[in-house]
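Hey, sorry to bother you again with one of my protein questions. I've been staring at a protein lately and its backbone has me curious. I owe you a coffee for this, so here goes:
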Amino acid sequence: MYMLLDVNTDIYPLQVDDKFTMALSSTLSLDGTPDDATFDQSGRKSLADKYEYVMYGKLYKFSDKESGGNVKIEVYVSFGGLLMLLQGDPSNLGNLMMDQRLYLLMRKVG
């Protein structure tokens, strides 16, 4: 899997060689219940509580790329102008759909 990601380093500083864990999710509910894409101010526990940096965006481009007989999928997501490109095996990215709303969650490790 290859990832190219814009991060707002003014609010979440990252350095070259920093290690982090990253997750993509369609909901912040711990039980997987779909949300209505509004900010929940109730104080209820959510997936975001387990991470330091969270962005919400939309998958705007999805394409197949073939090279040397290997098929790779390219997925492009915009998080309010901060962009992400994921390239990888279709089995890892096959559940994503065009115009899908996604949360990206990150935290540093080590």
Remarks:
- The chain has a mean pLDDT of 92.
- The longest strand covers residues 53-67.
- Strands lie at 2-5, 20-25, 53-67, 70-79, 82-88, 101-108.
